[in-house]
Design brief:
The structure holds two protein chains of two kinds.
Chain A: H1 14-22, E1 37-41, E2 45-46, H2 53-69, E3 73-77, H3 86-89, H4 95-99, E4 104-113, E5 116-125, E6 130-140, H5 144-160, E7 169-174, E8 181-186, E9 193-194, E10 202-207, E11 213-218, E12 225-230, E13 237-240, E14 246-251, E15 257-262, E16 269-274, E17 281-282, E18 290-295, E19 301-306, E20 313-318, E21 325-326, E22 334-339, E23 345-351, E24 355-361, E25 368-369, E26 375-381, E27 387-393, E28 399-404, E29 411-412, E30 420-425
Parallel strand pairs in A: 1-3, 1-4, 2-4
Antiparallel strand pairs in A: 4-5, 5-6, 7-8, 7-30, 8-9, 10-11, 11-12, 12-13, 14-15, 15-16, 16-17, 18-19, 19-20, 20-21, 22-23, 23-24, 24-25, 26-27, 27-28, 28-29
Helix pairs in contact in A: 2-5
Chain B: H1 13-19, H2 26-29, H3 34-43, H4 64-74, E1 81-82, H5 92-107, E2 114-119, H6 126-146, E3 154-160, H7 171-177, E4 179-184
Parallel strand pairs in B: 2-3
Antiparallel strand pairs in B: 1-4, 2-4
């Protein structure tokens, strides 16, 4: 997907720039006790002859979901009369918004010429009566959700100091086509597309740090082998086809290595290999199973699952082996570790009332249960650590859900049929 | 070595297989001789939506001798071995079954090569179950070698929880899914 996404950052007010430069974030949005900011999102108004309310509403709704899930706002779509001179020349009348209790306002305008779509979004600070952010996006009609998400990312950058994850997509496994294959969708479940068509069981995808390539385990040659392919290509290159299992591949944060579990010498042990599968370096030596590696964001350590003590627990080991320590201290049956992008937390699955998602600090303390409805597995962090994707079996077949890192806002996002499992976030697309 | 032939347990019979609601066999079929297995395949209660696999670049090799080997093996019932939850050590009934299987492999089909498929029930993480299925297959394979079956006649593959023998979410189903199955490959 070659998206022509050209952004013109024209921070309208030099004054607000100075404010931004002065402090790390515009608003102290994460301070405890602060109420959520009230954000009104007005669907972009048409500029020019082609009027498409559906298109405008879809963009606004996408942003409402993005920014609500960020946990910083109560965002709602509000319809308002178009500004007569367009966004550029009209003065925004802040008073009604202020009276209605809003802190922030997003308005926009779009031009649709044939298939070509141009959208401009603006974020306003209602209290201080000024424009905070202006972005313009040029592309095609099919990109409209992408434009909406891109602006959501920028809203978080401008207000909280770090871009949102809303232009990320989620790679996952779906049985929609009959057997398990790799799929890709927007983070909010829109635009699903099937990636692999192997006709064989396909599992455990991971994406390269540059977002271009995936690795996964496939039985297409009879054995659970590890393959690699570019998202833009259909060529699947074998990375590890050693006898036994070649499973749970995880790309190192710098993209140079892949950690995975191999049983070529008997039981399942943890290894790192080069990105082409060469030069295996064995990290664990046990008579047990060691698998599901999760890299720390600095690439120095790996969390993984091992049942060396009997029941499966999460352990942490240096990426070159050594310094092994046990992370989880509960009664066992812990799986699927995922290291937060800030490096401070590890999310995992623990078997209690089915499976539930837990999170703990990297010293193993502070274990907190995040889910309790149905059975929930395999948490994966968004690039900014604000959100977790996971698979949940709660109303029928397993589906991909997202939630905030504190467990709030659990929402089903996958729209594909069948079983949908093994989510992993791509990096954001800009 | 991939063109294995599923001449498994024909004594038990396809009927039994079907009655058991045998799991879809999507993977193994792949590189097998197309004609043969198509029939088997259709017969199974596979889930409907499954698109027929597009023929991969199949490496062609003469399949005849396998067919004959498979024929011979039809006379042999190689028993499936069952395991306890989250365990790969062999229960007494598993050892008994493996002893019978070893006997058959040493006498009746002394030239057959076999693949041991390790399977798990749906509990446990699916990734962990891949490792557990691997352990189960290898545990059964090791026991066979102690009974005199040459190691080079045995290969293993783990399917984790991906190919349950029985659909269901209770111990009755789970106990039938925690297993190592024998497949004659040559």
């Amino acid at each position: 997907m070659k998206l022509i996404l050209r952004m013109t950052l024209c921070l309208a007010l030099v004054g607000s720039l100075a404010t931004l430069a002065g402090s790390a974030t515009y608003i102290e949005v994460t301070a405890p006790g602060n109420r959520l900011l009230k954000l009104a999102i007005v669907p972009p108004q048409p500029l020019g002859a082609t009027v498409q309310p559906d298109l405008a509403n879809e963009m606004a709704e996408a942003q409402v979901f993005d920014l609500t899930m960020s946990g910083l706002f109560t965002a709602e779509r509000r319809d308002a009369a178009p500004l007569s001179q367009g966004l550029g020349l009209s003065m925004v009348d802040y008073v009604p918004w202020l009276t209605a209790g809003y802190d922030l306002l997003i308005r926009g305008e779009y031009v649709l010429r044939g298939d070509e779509l141009t959208v401009e979004f603006r974020l306003f600070d209602v209290l201080n009566k000024k424009s905070l952010l202006v972005k313009r996006y040029l592309g095609h009609r099919a990109d409209l959700r992408q434009f909406a998400h891109a602006f959501s990312d920028e809203v978080l950058a401008s207000l909280a100091g770090e871009k949102g994850p809303f232009t990320s997509r989620i790679v996952f496994v779906s049985s929609q086509s009959g057997n398990k294959e790799i799929f890709l969708m927007d983070w909010d479940g829109h635009n699903p597309q099937q990636i692999t068509r192997s006709g064989a069981i396909t599992l455990s995808p991971d994406i390269s740090p540059d977002g271009r390539e995936i690795i996964f385990t496939s039985y297409k040659r009879g054995n659970p082998d590890l393959y690699k392919r570019a998202l833009s290509s259909t060529v699947e290159v074998p990375v590890s086809t050693r006898p036994g299992v070649n499973i749970t591949g995880a790309w190192s944060p710098d993209g140079s290595k892949i950690a995975l579990a191999l049983s070529k010498d008997g039981n399942t042990e943890l290894y790192t290999v080069n990105r082409d599968g060469s030069a295996p370096n064995r990290l664990t030596v046990t008579h047990a199973a060691n698998l599901s590696p999760a890299w720390s964001p600095d690439g120095t350590r790996i969390a993984f699952v091992s049942d060396r003590l009997g029941k499966p627990h999460i352990f942490v080991i240096d990426a070159n082996g050594g310094n092994l320590r046990r992370l989880t201290t509960n009664n066992g049956n812990n799986f699927n570790p995922a290291w937060s992008p800030k490096g401070d937390k590890i999310a995992y699955t623990h078997m209690v009332d089915g499976f539930q998602i837990f999170v703990c600090n990297i010293d193993g303390n502070g274990e907190t249960q995040l889910t309790s409805e149905g059975s929930n597995e395999r948490p994966r962090w968004s690039s900014d650590g604000r959100l977790l994707a996971f698979s949940s079996k709660r109303n029928g077949a397993e589906a991909i859900y997202v939630m905030r890192a504190d467990g709030s806002g659990q929402t089903k996002v996958s729209r594909t049929a069948g079983k949908n499992i093994h989510p992993v976030w791509t990096p954001r697309r800009q | 070595m991939r063109k294995e032939f599923k001449g498994m347990v024909v004594c038990l019979g396809l009927v039994a297989l079907m009655a058991a609601g045998c799991a879809k066999d999507e993977v193994v079929k792949k590189d097998e001789p197309v004609v043969e297995q198509q029939t088997v395949k259709q017969a199974e209660p596979v889930k409907q939506a499954e698109p027929v696999k597009q023929a991969e670049p199949v490496k062609e090799e003469p399949k005849q001798q396998e067919a004959t080997a498979a024929k011979a093996s039809e006379a042999v019932a190689l028993e499936t071995v069952y395991f306890d939850f989250d365990k790969s050590d062999l229960r007494q009934d598993a050892r008994d079954a493996l002893s019978k299987n070893a006997e058959a492999l040493l006498k009746q089909v002394a030239d057959a090569k076999i693949k041991l498929e390790g399977h798990c029930d749906e509990r446990g993480s699916d990734e962990y179950n891949m490792a557990l299925g691997d352990r189960r297959a290898k545990s059964a394979a090791n026991y066979l070698t102690t009974l005199g079956v040459k190691a080079d006649r045995i290969s293993t593959v783990s399917y984790g929880e991906e190919k349950p023998a029985v659909q269901g979410h209770d111990e009755a189903a789970w106990s039938k899914n925690r297993r190592a199955e024998f497949v004659i490959v040559k």
